[in-house]
Each structure stands twice: as C-alpha cells, then as structure tokens.
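re: that chain from earlier
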Amino acid sequence: MNLGYPLGAASQALPSLHPGERLLWAAYGRTLNYDVRGLDPWGVPKKSVLGKIGSGAANFAGDMVGAALGGGDDSGASNPPSPQVVVLGEQGGIAHAAVRELSTSGSLSRLWALTSTRLLVLEKVVPPETPSKKSFMSKAIGFGKEIAAIMTTKTYGENAEGVPIARHEMVARAGIPRGSIAGFAVAEHGKKRRPCLRASFVDGSGMDFLFDCDDPRQFAWLHSVTVS
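^ sequence. v structure.
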C-alpha cells in the first residue's frame, strides 16, 4: 500500500457523475503515451527524413552526433516512463482528439472512469495563487511553524500522519460518450505483451489501459464490469 496515494479512485470519481449516471470502474492513471502514426510517445509530431535533409547538412550531422552521444529517440534518456494509458490510432481520431490537450505526465490524482454514459478523465482542480498581504515578520513566523510541523509530522506525498485523506475537487478534462465506444477486450500491449484492457472506438482508434498492473485476471475482472 502506498500511503502517498490520494483517496480511492471510485470514491473520488462518484461526486463528478451526473444524476442517474452509474460508475462502472475508476482508476488512477498519471502517465499518458501515444501509439499514433506520425507522433512520438509524448504526442509530438515526429521529424521526417525529408525534413532533416531539407534542414541542411550541418543540422543533419548535428542530429547524427546527438544520437551517437545518447540524445537520439532510442536513447535511455529520452525513453518515456512506463505509461498507464496508451492512445492508439490516427491523428485526429476519437482517441487522439479526446485527450490531446492533456499533459503526458499528469498529477497523481488524474483518474480515468467508465460510467454508464461515458469514458471520463478527471483531474484535481488547482486553485490560482492569491498574493499574500502578510508582513515579512508574520511570514517568517509562519515559515518557522511550518518547518517545526514538518519536522514532527510524517508525510506521505500529499497526505500527512493523523490527517484524514481529503477528497479533491475534480474537474472533467476529457470525455468520450458511450455511443462512440465500439467495445472492450482484454488484450496485450506492445512488444512486452503486457496485459491491458483495450477500448475500441467506432472510428478504429482506441486506448490501452495498463494501470501499472501485470495480472491478466485483474483485467478480466475489469472487462467483466464494463459489460455489466
């Protein structure tokens, strides 16, 4: 159990549902990657070979040197972290269009929820910072108290010892109506054949939900509740 995790995904998702909407499952999934033609794993358009040639021999040589020193697309430094959700299909497809405004590495509180009416992506509301009107002395005193509290209280991510895990105010950042979803299946993702739940949309695009789990039985259970 990771004590730094936020409130359970289902408990956090329920307040965001519409009246009469039924929650089927919810899970946290921070890292989003793409397996979309013409995009790299972060959703950025890939450089074409013709583009490199057209940029001049000097730039092309620089690219080759960078790759040799470990700065190319296949280097360990630029490989993305293991994703929890992978977008499949073509640029502009249902899957890509729904989430392309999301950062590929969201907060720990980003969650994905399937309901009776839609597939939903929720993220914690981050309130805007307000300028402080406190004097320098009061700020210094407050800072000292915060340091003292930190030294005497165990913290786990955003959670603190002895303090109930709070429910975050969430906002819907993306959604796909159930009418656009063709179906779900337990599948295997990538060369490592990791088990996942695959959502297929009516235009042929899709999403693989991996959720940091390698047990096919968990995805079989997840599939069973999507069709209940």
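The radius of gyration is 22 Å.
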